[in-house]
Write a structure and sequence with these properties.
Elements (H helix, E strand, L loop, with lengths): L6 E3 H6 L1 H11 L3 E5 L2 E6 L2 H23 L5 H12 L7
Parallel strand pairs: 1-2
Antiparallel strand pairs: 2-3
Length: about 90
Amino acid sequence: MISVQDIRSLTEFQRHTKAHLKRLKATRRPTVLTVNGKAELIVQDAAAFEEMLDAIRGIQRGLEAMKEGTGKPFRVALDNIRAKQRIPRRPR
């Protein structure tokens, strides 16, 4: 979700580019840039963008596996992760 503090005008971004780049790297959150009060661009740190793409690719692989019938149901996968990481089950 985009926070109000992550919305900036393109003009302000251009005037204070170094400060904005520093903030982008520190927070790893995207910034919405506006032109005449309307959202026009989203700027994001490259490493954070790559992480987001990796997550999307993982979701796509999971959806394809489920379509092909080779995926695991969520509960089975979660139980496997819990067992591997030694995380106890919470009582229901």
